[in-house]
Design a protein that fits this description.
single chain; alpha+beta; about 350 residues; about 25% strand
């Protein structure tokens, strides 16, 4: 803490943008002020920690959607229930199975698709109980059981907003399409101006704005994102709210930095994670493997930028990929896969 105080310099002031605001962060800020006379600014952290923690749960989103008038309509949460124990989960799953619908079970405080369980019509009570008991992600917290939205043409959009710490209106930063490998394995995100033509776009943006205004009314400030699933006809079901910067915030920042505030009129920017490398490659070896796809946005109209390399020891790495269209983005993803397989 003394080194941090020295880093603050003569101004005696720091600004922190945390991934997730925790109670300990506020304790740290108070201690810096008390013990070192350093003011720690947290411009993207909601002072109501209880509200932030509530919003970071599946049940919190369902409560918020009801408060924002999104219990039904073209953008809403999926039909579901909050359960307090295994017996309630079994009953909720059986109720939906009787109607011929699949169910997805989520830990209330889960994130990043970890621990999701899918149950199909015909799954036995014993299988449901055994699966829950074998999972390490279900304990004393609430468990959310929802209808599993599937079918031809289903996509997974997301939106991110900023709720300002002023009287100004909340505003959208960008919309994305989330990219999955299978039903629960998130591989990346992509934002593009062409998404405005998708059937879900206007419904999700209208719902997202209603959620943003309800958050502002409750005293929230900072970034937040909503993950959703959409049917081919544009009907949207909100799945999750992240009360923080999200897994696609850096894509928006990348676009602004290299292509300017109107970047979505001409550019597509995405991130994608690639497993399947030999374990333990160096950064230099990865760049060599991907040549000539690795190109600077200052000098090329499209390219791959290796940017998340902490997984190299286990044979995976993350990228930002920029292109002039959605089709070109996906072509670059395929080219990276091909080079990994050939390497």
């Amino acid at each position: 803490m003394a080194r941090i105080a020295r880093h603050a310099g003569e101004g005696r002031r720091l600004r922190l943008i945390p991934h997730t605001t925790t109670p300990d962060l506020w304790t740290f800020a108070a201690a810096m002020r008390r013990n070192f006379d350093v003011t720690v600014e947290l411009p993207e952290s909601s002072e109501d920690q209880g509200l932030r923690d509530l919003l970071d749960t599946k049940s919190g989103l369902r409560d918020l959607a009801a408060g924002a008038g999104l219990a039904d309509g073209p953008c809403r949460v999926a039909q579901g229930k909050h359960c307090r124990n295994t017996q309630q989960v079994v009953a909720a799953v059986a109720e939906m199975q009787a109607a011929g619908r699949s169910r997805i079970v989520k830990a209330d405080k889960g994130e990043a698709s970890v621990g999701l369980l899918l149950f199909q019509p015909g799954d036995s009570k014993d299988k449901i109980i055994r699966t829950l008991e074998e999972s390490p992600f279900y304990g004393d917290d609430l468990i959310v059981v929802e209808e599993y939205i599937t079918g031809e043409g289903v996509v997974f959009p997301s939106v991110e907003y900023i709720v300002p710490d002023t009287d100004g209106a909340p505003y959208l930063t960008h919309a994305c399409e989330m990219l999955f490998d299978g039903p629960t394995r998130l591989m990346g995100n992509v934002t593009s101006g062409s998404l405005v033509h998708q059937a879900w776009h206007r419904h999700l943006l209208a719902g997202g704005q209603a959620i943003a205004e309800e958050l502002q009314r409750r005293g929230y400030r900072g970034h937040f994102g909503i993950d959703a699933v959409a049917r081919a006809d544009g009907e949207v079901f909100m799945l999750d709210l992240n009360a923080r910067r999200t897994g696609s915030t850096h894509l928006h920042d990348f676009g602004l930095q290299f292509f300017g505030p109107e970047y979505l009129t001409s550019w597509t920017v995405g991130n994608f994670d690639f497993p399947g490398l030999p374990e333990g490659l160096t950064v230099k070896e990865v760049v060599s493997l991907l040549q000539p796809l690795v190109r600077s946005p200052l000098h090329a109209r499209s390219g791959v930028v290796p940017c998340e390399l902490s997984g190299l020891a286990k044979g995976r790495f993350g990228t930002v990929i920029y292109a002039s269209s959605m089709a070109e983005f996906h072509h670059l993803v395929r080219q990276v896969h091909e080079r990994i397989q050939q390497g």
